[in-house]
Specification:
Elements: H1 4-20, H2 27-32, H3 74-86, E1 91-95, H4 98-107, E2 113-118, H5 123-134, E3 138-143, H6 146-152, E4 159-163, H7 175-184, E5 188-192, H8 197-200, E6 210-214, E7 228-232, H9 235-248, H10 254-264, H11 267-287, E8 291-295, E9 302-307, H12 313-319, E10 324-325, E11 335-337, H13 349-354, E12 361-365, H14 371-383
Parallel strand pairs: 2-3, 2-4, 4-5, 5-6, 10-11
Antiparallel strand pairs: 1-7, 6-7, 8-9, 9-12, 11-12
Helix pairs in contact: 3-10, 11-14, 12-14
Length: 384
């Protein structure tokens, strides 16, 4: 557990943020003003990039509030304040990757905790869940649908873990409904909000206890930052998370923190453009004879679809000119991914196929290009 000083520091950070960025301020303003007016010494408009790893004490027994960058860095603090505000949370921690954010979130719970998770989820999450279970750290049960999850939510469940929408089948879950049911049974709720971002969903407002992101994706938005985020409203959880992050050291670097602040400023604009483009791409895919099923929620830039002829997938991937065949998502550039051999390759085929992630599925991350060029590129690859 934390020392008194760390607890007080967390409370002060939260109070300062509420003064500087009132919850009455709208989301677009919070994003545009990310990191602004934080340097009282020089009046620099944007958050300065603080590379220093250590900080001089004014004198014996005194501290500036910064002692060592692993514990606290001014650039990272500015980022974390913004992340907490846009997720309607009191506390946020920035980590070195999305996977480190997941591992950190689970570190707040005791060994032996029982986890109920959605079946369709990111392959990297599945890989770590399987490892953690094999080591005896957690026990996992999986559910394919919301009703199945709620029916499996018994009194012995400690954690409910959901992606919504799921990766890559785009299944949505009712966070408020699940949170209420989980809390009635004494379970905590963790939500991966990577696909929607705070633009379309703020799970803390719906009762989630912890929200996490692979900030590499939409939050940063330019395929040049590796980062993760964990947010919570609970001071008790924050203290555990802060302590564990400081102890294990998987913090976000000052440079990546600065880059992420810059990316956040255009999040709303990027999500709006990606959604508009995605809606046009979906309309094309639904009419294409080469496509037998389209999976899309109606908002956001993520689309999955199943091709009519699975044997043509190598040709499709090799023929695209505007789309890049690459892992990841959420950047300004449009990407296409084949989960079977990329993002979900660590999930055994029989498991993948059991819940609908078949080998005929391709996943698109729609960027901010002209939708006409994206559609023309898909048409020539799918139908040419």
């Amino acid at each position: 557990m934390f020392s008194k000083d760390v607890t007080i520091e967390g409370e002060i950070l939260a109070k300062d943020w509420k003064v500087n960025m009132s919850k009455d301020v709208k989301l677009n303003t919070l994003l545009a003003q990310a990191g602004v007016k934080k340097d009282e010494t020089t009046g620099a408009l944007t958050t300065p990039l603080h590379f220093s790893t250590t900080y001089q004490h004014p004198e014996f027994g005194q501290s500036t509030g910064y002692d060592y960058t692993r514990t606290k860095n001014p650039t990272r603090v500015s980022l974390e304040e913004t992340l907490a505000a846009i997720e309607s949370a009191n506390y946020a921690l920035a980590t070195s990757s999305g996977m480190s954010a997941i591992v950190l979130a689970f570190s707040a719970f005791p060994v032996g905790s029982k986890v109920l998770a959605v079946r369709d989820l990111y392959g990297g999450s599945f890989r770590w869940f399987a490892q953690a279970e094999a080591e005896g750290r957690f026990a996992f049960t999986y559910a394919n649908t919301e009703e199945e999850l709620l029916n499996s939510l018994t009194e012995d469940i400690d954690i409910v873990y959901i992606e919504t929408p799921t990766n890559p089948l785009m299944v949505e879950f009712d966070i408020a409904r699940i949170s209420q049911a989980a809390h009635e049974r004494g379970a905590a709720v963790i939500v991966d909000n990577t696909f929607y971002s705070p633009i379309y969903q703020r799970p803390i407002e719906d009762g989630a206890d912890i929200v996490l992101h692979s900030a590499t994706k939409y939050l940063a938005g330019h395929n040049d930052v590796l980062a993760g985020v964990v947010v919570t409203n609970s001071l008790e959880l924050y203290e555990k998370l802060f302590y564990n992050l400081n102890t294990t050291g998987a913090v976000l670097s000052p440079f990546d923190s600065y880059q992420l602040i810059r990316g956040l400023k255009t999040l709303s604009l990027r999500m709006e453009r990606s959604t508009a483009n995605a809606q046009e791409v979906v309309a094309f895919l639904k009419d294409s004879p080469a496509v037998k099923e389209v999976l899309y929620t109606g908002r956001g830039g993520m689309i999955s679809f199943k091709v009519a002829d699975e044997t043509r997938i190598p040709h499709i991937l090799n023929s695209l000119k505007v789309f890049s065949f690459a892992e990841s998502l959420g950047g300004v550039e449009s990407l296409i991914t084949y989960p079977t051999t990329q993002t979900h390759a660590d999930i055994p085929a029989e498991v993948r196929h059991s819940y609908g992630l078949t080998d005929d599925l391709l996943r698109l991350s729609i960027g901010i290009e002209d939708a006409r060029d994206l559609i023309a590129d898909l048409r020539q690859a799918l139908e040419g």
